[in-house]
Amino acid sequence: MKQDMIVEFLECLDEGIHIVNAEGMTIYYNRVASQLDGMNVEEVIGMHVLEAFPSLTQKSSTLLSVLETGKPLEEREQTFMNRNGKRVTTINRTIPLRSQQGRVVGAAEISKDLTRMKELSDQVLHLQERIRHPRGQRGQEAQRFYSFDDIVTQNRSMLREIERAKRAARTHSPVLVIGETGTGKELFVQAIHRDSARKSQPFIVQNCAAIPASLLEGILFGTARGAFTGAEDRPGLVELADGGTLFLDEIHAMPIDLQAKLLRVLEDGQVRRVGGTELRSFDVRVMVATNEDPLLSIREGRLRRDLYYRIHVVGIHLPPLRERPEDIECLTRYFFRKFKGQWNSPVERIADEVLEAFMRYDWPGNVRELEHTVEGALNLALEEELRQEHLPRHFHAVKPAQVIRLQGNQTCLREALQEVEATMIREAMREANENVLQAAKRLGIPRQTLQYKLKKLNKGKRG
To answer: What separation, in Å, do the N-terminal and C-terminal C-alpha atoms of the chain show?
Structure first.
């Protein structure tokens, strides 16, 4: 009864379970393992591992390796051909099974399927290699990169970061771009590459959070034939970016042990393919991005301190859109013109209520969210004016300022509130001796918000 319960439990797992005895004969093989390997349970039970999977060897089989050494293997990638000729890639955790006396009496393996992910990563490397070594006249000249002119901003902090980026473009130093999701980190990186001496050389991008850790090392550093079953001689992204720029996004998502290897590669200027012995020199400018505070990542163990010091030669800090209120209207109109020019849209103008709703919203998705919001609204609008009703549902709760007429002198509430705000701003500026930062602290608002309001007040005076 107890054994039946254990078997029933193992059959309910989402992972493949393969158990062999001390001679390497399969004594248990669950349904998920059968699906992963493309084999029937009956074809594997009672059969030796090498007979069921003839492309494996004593050395490349994780189960047989554990039987021989008595030591567990963690997160080991294995690629093999099953008896039906299907190529399978799994990530395995393999442990020895011991008797009460400590003798190894078998081995158990927990497997997850990586076949499709491995195929996709191979395609990525193949495409990157085609970019690096194009046929005919297709080359890097065909690639289109953002330029600094594509960065739409009136914000002083952003303008300052653009100047820093322009200066960085004239060097070969590593660059770390820090900013929330949607603030335009890759836009800055592309602009730096486009203005650099490497602009005609490869620009290779890899999001470190998009690929499983077990595959990321091979993608970055390449693989040598025989490193594991099915492994081919293939350059990694570091080699493919030779002479150009390698952009690693979400660096804090890279496993800590792989960060150590990356640091060594960057320090030495040489890379060794996974499973290989030959050191290959390269000349690559590395640019890195993260959407969280790198010091927080270091404290919480997601980013190595020594790697941070290596990549943070030039730091670019992009403020979130909620701290750039002066950019909201100009970006809205920019995206409005962009999408209107792409489509035959009847919309001719943006209603004030839309701009007011945008100013009151905190934009957690930053500029990317604003762009998609404008695009979606233009898809829905059939009239000449883009109104709040065309915006996503969560904007409907962002009420625009209501104009309410008062009795007596007929002054509207909106104008009264604006006058009170203007008076408070003037008083705060006077008490702070015209120091915007100190006045903003007195008013309890961000400095950028106060600058935006001062600009509106001065514009009103001139009008």
So the answer is: 88
